[in-house]
Amino acid sequence: MNNTENTYYPDDLIAAYLNNELDKEQRVELEKWVAADAAHKRYFYEMTEVWLAAHATAGNKEESERAFQHFRGRISAPGKGQRFSLRFIRIAAAVFAGMLLLGTGYYLGNRPLDHSRLYAMQTVEVPMGSRSRIVLEDGTVVWLNAGSKLSYNSAFSHKERNVQLEGEGYFEVTHNKKLPFIVHTSDIDIQVLGTRFNVKAYGDEENIEVILAEGSVNLSSPENQTEPLTMKPEQQAIYNKKSGHTDIRKVAASQADNWTTGAHFFNELTLEQIVKQLEKSFDVSFIFRNEEKKHLTFYGDFRNDDSLEDILTIMSSSGKFRYRKTNDIIEIY
Asked: d(Cα 57, Cα 169) in Å, to the nearest integer?
């Protein structure tokens, strides 16, 4: 296929892709267009290159302009350069959803893709009612609980070992004293060298909880700029987002990862805290018809094959509350 002025170039789709804004149908459309012709692949590569150049020179208008002009000079189609606007080199730094067809490592012309230059963000999201186990490039194993998201740079394990967590994750970190492993949450950072620990940091909960099963971790708060707190095995740190205060409790090491099997362990939790866990695990919604019931405290240890009905039946047998289930809505009385 020859490059002509009439050739279709999906600039809007490419821009949306670089900003992680494509829906499923748009992604399929872009993938088909890129795969249809070598010129399309080359063009897609060039646009990505401009985006990366702009990313590297963010805030420097002169450098961004130079990157754009350099790109225009490499387009062979007459008049084609005039179709672009500087929006491509002013695209805000965003998260890549993955490297599309670039991730397959195909060749553009005679030049292989240099992955080391594409420092994109990779994101793993787990829907409600599910759990997921992933293995990072350095061998670290991560379990993600329902409604959780883990993001990390594509340079992970080469230049850094930083991850961003929203939700709950259990980590078995591969030891590397040259590259500390850091989990960033909304309010605190957890730094380790090699260890096993759990982090619970859901956006809709007032606390961030860390349970250390093995090794040691340092907790720090960029906002409060306090001295890092060093945790020991079989400790649970509970950080309150509002007050910035951290409580330390003694817990069993098994509490760090018991949820990865699908089991539920409630150690002196309020019913309000328990139903938040059950909502995520079973993808249901709870409604309290009696606000006082939120403050009831329970202990419980349920197996991974216990259904939601099993858990609610056993808990309500205490006589402390009643419930009614209609489809995916559970009312507490």
From this structure: 34
